[in-house]
Amino acid sequence: MAKRIHTLTVFEHQPVRQGSGAAQLSAAELQALQLHHGEKGVPYFSLIHRGVKFNQYVGVLQVGKRLIEVLPKADKDDGEDLWRNRLIDMLRATSTLQVENTSSSQLKIKPNSVLDLYFELLIAEMEQLLHHGLVKQYRQTTGNRTALKGSLQFAQHLNHNLVHRERFYVRHTTYDRRHLLHQILYEALLLLQRLNTHPQLHHRIGRLLLDWPGQDRLRVYPTLFEWLSFNRKTAPYRSAIQIAKMLLLNYHPDVSRGQEDVLALMFDMNQLWERFVYVSLRKYAPQGMTVHAQNTKTFWTPDQGQKRTMRPDILLKSAGQTIVLDTKWKRPNGYGPSPDDLRQLYVYLKYYGAEKAALVYPGGNKTVNGRFAPLPGVGLESWGAGSLLFLPVGNEVWNWQQEISAVVFKWTAKHPNPTK
Questions:
Q1: Which of 60, 70, 177, 361 has the highest Cβ tally under 10 A?
Q2: Coiled-coil intervals in this record (predicted)?
Q3: 408 pLDDT higher than 90
């Protein structure tokens, strides 16, 4: 088990610089992040003088033995523990964490970070697979055998066994547990053994390595997962493979020195907030109200070239009424929403024939109603309601989702026409 030196917790959009303090990066850690950033860059942080600045992505970065935890934050008052729990709750609620097949009773530790939670999810899935029995699959094997089994490979047989006439170079079919699914999970298990720092997971990883059937080592790359297909027997492997894929493809070993490997599990907070609001509204939608996510329409078609589309975050439909919601994971400054956000909202309102639209922000619990100016010579019927919804950030996820739904659906019930 790797010994974690220190967990550095920061918030989104916060810079971290090189130094000797506990809340700073060492020279080796900064160099590893700079190499990971490379010339093409990564979306979750940018390079600054003697440091890095995180963007709107949240999650964890493990650099060597150092864990950097990037948390969301919609206000200045709440602390690290509260936002850490909120992030995990949002990931669970939006199914970003693959927990559909893993009951909460199987998760035995209190995670110190999202990374610990992912590690235990994979361990729990693999323990469950072992408990129910690992599947066997057919595979082709080729090699020297002392018995003639399968088809004799004449060219290789003459090349290898001109002297040893008691052997046969054959190709035959084997039915066992050494196949691609188990190889991928075995590679993920070895990665956990290398990176895990949670003492309660250490013995479970060791037990899995003892019980897991021996596998040939495998080089993991993105297109490898395109070859996988699941049937009735292998369907229980799907969740474990998805978690293993996320871990393996986001792991970047330090090939030069082997000391400052980087594992990045980062999530775009704008997308996560949009998804969380959507699943909350869908869960508590009143009867007759339907909730749709990202309904795409084409708004510009050139004579040659690519079309341009628009895609509002959330559409609400009820009794012929259409309402547009555009989520924003940020807080407007003292001057109100940006003109670009309002222009975008106005286009959604008109193009989708909506009665009202709103920008949806985290934090607070208030509604700022507003209206777009009428078109010249048309009158009040061309007005459109453009509001700002500030949704509360609750402590318990179920209560949080209920509060979000209550604010939004209370606003939707009000008539948008200013003359009524």
A1: 70
A2: none
A3: yes
**For the chain, the helix, strand and coil percentages under 3-state DSSP, each to the nearest 5:** 35, 25, 40
Greatest CA separation found in the chain? 100
pLDDT bin (cut points 50, 70, 90) of residue 416 is low
DSSP 94: T
The DSSP secondary-structure symbol of 256 reads: T
- Is the confidence at residue 245, as pLDDT, over 70? yes
Give dist(CA 94, CA 275) in Å, integer. Answer: 6
Distance CA 141, CA 174 (A): 7
- How does residue 184 score in pLDDT terms, banded at 50, 70 and 90? very high
Number of Cβ within a 10 Å radius of residue 32 = 24
Give the DSSP per-residue string, 332-394. -BTTBS-HHHHHHHHHHHHHTT-SEEEEEEESS-EEE--EEPPPTTT-GGG-EEEEEEEE---
Angle, nearest 10°, between helix axes 180-195 and 199-211? 150
In this structure, is the dihedral angle defined by the CA atoms of residues 393, 396, 397 and 399, taken in order, positive or negative? Answer: negative
The mean pLDDT of 334-341, rounded to a whole number, is: 84
Distances (CA, A) of 388 to 76, 290, 315, 364, 374: 20, 21, 16, 11, 19
Average pLDDT estimate for 207-225: 91
Burial of 181 (0-12, 13-18, 19+ CB in 10 A): buried
- The type of residue at 110 is K
What average pLDDT does range 102-114 have in this prediction? Answer: 53
